[in-house]
Specification:
The complex is a heterodimer. Chain A is mainly α. Chain A has 3 domains: 32 residues, no CATH class; 334 residues, Up-down Bundle (Cytochrome Bc1 Complex, Chain C), CATH 1.20.810; 47 residues, no CATH class. Chain A contains 18 helices and 8 strands. In chain A, strand 7 and strand 8 form a beta hairpin. In chain A, helix 6 packs across helix 11, helix 15 runs antiparallel to helix 17 and helix 16 crosses helix 17. Chain A starts with a helix and ends in a 23-residue tail after the last helix. By secondary structure, chain B is an alpha+beta fold. In chain B, the strands form 4 sheets. A 5-stranded antiparallel β-sheet of chain B has the order 3-4-5-6-11. The radius of gyration of chain B is 37 Å and the shape is flat. The chains are: A mainly alpha, B alpha+beta. The interface between A and B is large, with 115 and 93 residues. Bound molecules: protoporphyrin IX containing FE and FE2/S2 (inorganic) cluster.
Chain lengths: 509, 311
């Protein structure tokens, strides 16, 4: 009896003070040498500011997309072969539909939890793209894209484009009436590109619309190729993040040479894992209570029919709006046609917007002459020009988005379609033109406003001996007072006119 | 001011166990702990509910509510634990300069330029051949790769399946007789035999309208195209190819639901609103001796949206 206890104790002692964990680490480290790097990783500091959460939302909705998407692949059949629908949704019973459509309807009615998975997949897609856009806005307005992080800005933008593209591909898979209409439009947009357009359309669709290979091709792109690209780029994005470390807002003790916040283990790990659950939970609740893409109501795709509720997913709205309000300016000459009414709003416009976004870090470096390394973030009001430019572009896109429902607005406000159309055309120019100066001067004002960038303090109410009440605001928070002192860039080294080998570091600036 | 020193960031590795930075952030940890515990319990109950809902094959919303609810409780609990009950910090980590010394950079450039470049310089001819082969393998494989993806457009976009004498049939394949449509009504027609094909539905689709004769403007050269008040227009919107599926009977307008282009059917389907740049192509019709509606020929111009090769 006491012998048994003794052996137990001596065994425990033989394991050392860290027990099984210690043993495991020892064994692993002997083979892989993980201890040093592992400790650094566990100690990695993450800034506590809420805006750093936006990227996490994007990441975790992608995780939910992967999980729900794998479930869907098990039941969805990527085939345009015609079958007679014999499933449990009676209004469609006996109709001739494609296998893709039939299997998507079956997913919604016959597969247990299938409808929930479909709706969660679709909702997480919308949240994914939305979170990316907001994440990008925070990176833009705080200047987090500046040197040395230009590469990650480009990786992030590519992720946004891939996500939008994959969302569109996924939207087409159920082969319902609305998705087919979207594809028809996408085909016509390809066709509108001068010189190569018709070839592009024929090669992508395997012939004139609707072609022969749409569903199987788009399926493999949607479930394998694009997700792999996205995963690779997400990996690159996070690798660069760890290598370059986070940016941070100026604050007490925060400099260009450090990062202040919470350690990876356990604080950040707990919060971020909780966040994964929270995102999955919210997507689950949306999937439960907010119907999305009820394909059985739209019916199967039929090229000669159309639903009046043609609405693309939200992230395509700006393109649809641009196509609606652009005038009918087709160009015909020399035996050729350039459908400018399509090419400009649907090819040139997004081309300009995305290329401008890709080039922005380089443009800003060139125009400000600021080629320094930045780890401390800008308060948006301190960079009024950048902030105003970003706000103007967002306003422009927002108006185009609103323009994608001209008919709804006309109905709702009892206006004629043509007055709404003209109003949107004018607003497309007017709103950004007003947004720029307004934002610019607001930002300037905010720079000079007393207490700008500082939190409101409480009011201290006191009662004097005579019974009079006095309200005075408490002094600013300690951390806020320090702001202006620490936000300055402190040179980290002084260039010495020495050859590099003398133990003095010479870094070109 | 103790508050002040405890808000100054410290290094995680050098912090002592009694340091305020390691204290939880919550003012009242006991209360927070209870709230978190409640969240975890609610999560467990939800997951049991989810399993139950799955087993009894409950509606989707019950599955979603239990699963999503459970995940939400779990997430909130865990976030609160991390935020309020774990070391409150703030901690600081030094940022090391990523850049190497100029000497290290030069060493790398040297390796590439001298070692690599030296080899090429001595064998310029071989280098040229290597570059040539690489360029050729690229050029020689790109086109086949693309070309295998689909047929060439050639003339495909310039004609439809409508032929001289083709009967106009509806979606079920029934031929349309001149007495079939009441004045003011409309039907989608296809060339006989093509109504069930992909191309028939996507490209040949045509709207047949019986107009009252009074307000009709006949376009030059199309005097014989609309017998008996029947006119036929391609159903593909000239903007982006949506089916022009809405007929405003009072205004005699065909409306495209995609971007609200409107075409005046009494006047050669000229667009009078919206982004569509061209009228809908008109199909020349005739009525045969038995009273059936047939095509005189194919459309005289490509149907649907514009493209480069179109004149
Ligand atoms: C980049 C991330 C992704 C995005 C943005 C995305 C988006 C979408 C969207 C919007 C749909 C239409 C949903 C509906 O039926 O209502 C869809 C369908 C689908 N997705 Fe994804 N998805 C992504 C990743 C994946 C992955 C990784 C898989 C599988 C491994 C997948 C498998 C599927 C399948 C099978 C469908 C058809 C479901 C159906 O027709 O009911 N997706 N996707
Ligand atoms: S497709 Fe008809 S108006 Fe755009």
């Amino acid at each position: 009896m006491s012998d048994a206890i003794a052996t137990k104790r001596s065994k425990r002692e033989a394991r050392g003070p860290y027990g099984r964990v210690g043993t495991a680490i020892n064994e692993l480290d002997e083979r892989l040498g993980i201890a040093k790097g592992g400790r650094t990783f566990l100690d990695k500091i993450f800034p506590d500011h809420w805006s750093f959460m936006l990227g996490e939302i994007a990441l975790y909705s992608f995780v939910v997309l992967l999980a729900t998407g794998v479930f869907l692949t098990l039941y969805y059949i990527p085939s345009s072969a015609i079958v007679t629908y014999k499933g449990s949704y009676l209004p469609l019973y006996g109709q001739h539909v494609t296998q893709a459509f039939a299997s998507s309807v079956d997913l919604s009615f016959s597969v247990r939890a299938g409808l929930l998975m479909r709706q969660m997949h679709h909702w997480s897609c919308d949240i994914f793209v939305g979170a990316m856009v907001v994440h990008m806005a925070r990176v833009f307005f705080t200047g987090a894209f500046r040197k040395p992080r230009e590469t990650n800005w480009i990786v992030g933008l590519s992720l946004l484009i891939l996500a939008i593209g994959n969302g569109f591909l996924g939207y087409s898979l159920p082969d319902d009436l609305v998705s087919g209409t979207g594809l028809r439009i996408a085909y016509s947009i390809m066709e509108s590109i001068p010189l190569v357009g018709t070839y592009l359309g024929f090669f992508v669709f395997g012939g004139n619309f609707p072609g022969t290979s749409m569903i199987p091709r788009f399926f493999i792109l949607h479930v394998l190729i694009v997700p792999l690209l996205i995963m690779g780029l997400v990996g690159a994005h996070l690798f660069l993040l760890v290598r370059q470390k986070h940016t941070q807002f100026p604050g007490p003790g925060r400099t260009e040479n450090n990062v202040v916040g919470s350690p990876m283990f356990p604080v950040f790990m707990a919060k971020t894992t909780g966040f994964l659950f929270l995102v999955a939970g919210v997507v689950g609740l949306l999937g439960a209570f907010a119907q999305i893409n009820p394909i059985w109501q739209f019916g199967p795709y039929d090229a000669a029919r159309i639903s009046y509720a043609v609405q693309p997913d939200w992230y395509m709205g700006f393109l649809d709006g641009a196509l609606r309000i652009f005038p009918a300016w087709s160009f015909h000459s020399f035996g050729h046609t350039i459908p400018l009414e399509v090419t400009i709003p649907a090819v040139v416009l997004p081309g300009i917007i995305f290329n401008l976004a890709f080039a922005w870090p380089a443009l800003e470096r060139k125009f400000t002459g600021d080629n320094a390394i930045h780890h401390l973030l800008d308060r948006p009001s301190l960079r009024p020009k950048r902030t105003a430019a970003g706000a103007a572009v967002l306003a422009f896109l927002m108006i185009l988005f609103i323009a994608s429902s001209t008919d709804v607005i006309a109905n709702f406000m009892h206006l004629s379609l043509s007055s709404v159309l003209w109003a949107m055309r004018i607003l497309t120019f007017l709103v950004p033109l007003i947004t720029y100066p307004v934002t610019y001067y607001l930002a300037k004002e905010m720079q000079h406003a007393p207490g700008s960038g500082k939190r409101k303090t409480t009011n201290v109410v006191s009662r004097s001996a005579t019974g009079e009440y006095l309200a005075e605001s408490a002094p600013a928070y300690d951390e806020d007072v320090h702001h202006e002192l620490v936000a300055k860039t402190v040179p980290t080294f002084i260039e010495a006119d020495l050859d590099s080998d003398n133990g003095v570091r010479k870094v070109p600036r | 001011m103790s508050e002040n020193t405890s808000r100054t960031p410290v290094n995680l590795q050098s912090v002592r166990e009694s340091d305020p930075h390691l204290q939880p952030a919550a003012k009242n940890p006991v209360v927070v702990e209870r709230v978190i515990a409640l969240n975890f319990i609610a999560a467990m109950l939800s997951f049991v509910g989810f399993l139950w809902a799955y087993i009894v094959n409950a509606q989707a919303w019950k599955l979603g509510a239990t699963f999503g609810g459970g995940m939400t409780f779990l997430g909130i609990g865990l976030i609160a634990w991390g935020k309020y009950l774990m070391p409150r910090g703030p901690f600081v980590e030094e940022r090391h300069v990523l850049a190497s010394t100029q000497g290290e950079r030069d060493a790398m450039s040297d390796a590439i330029v001298k070692r690599g470049g030296g080899v090429i310089q001595r064998r310029k001819f071989l280098g040229g051949l290597l570059g040539g082969s690489m360029a050729l393998v690229g050029a020689a494989s790109i086109w086949p790769l693309l070309r295998s993806l689909g047929p060439l457009p050639k003339g495909t976009l310039f004609h439809t399946d409508w032929r001289k004498g083709a009967f106009a049939v509806d979606q079920s394949g029934r031929r349309i007789h001149k007495n079939d449509l009441a004045v003011g009504s409309i039907v989608t027609v296809f060339p006989e035999g093509k109504q069930d094909t992909d191309n028939g539905q996507a490209v040949d689709q045509t709207v047949l309208i019986r107009l009252s004769n009074e307000h009709f403007t006949t376009q030059k050269g199309r005097e014989s195209w609309g017998p008996h008040g029947y006119v036929a227009y391609s159903k593909l919107c000239t903007h982006l190819g949506c089916p022009v599926g809405l007929y405003e009977q009072q205004l005699q307008l065909l409306v495209c639901p995609c971007h609200q282009s409107m075409f005046d059917v009494t006047n050669g389907a000229l667009p009078n609103f919206g982004p569509a740049p061209r009228p809908l192509p008109q199909l020349p019709l005739y009525i045969d001796s038995n009273g059936y509606i047939r095509a005189q020929s194919d459309f005289h111009e490509p149907v649907g949206p514009g493209f480069w090769e179109r004149a």
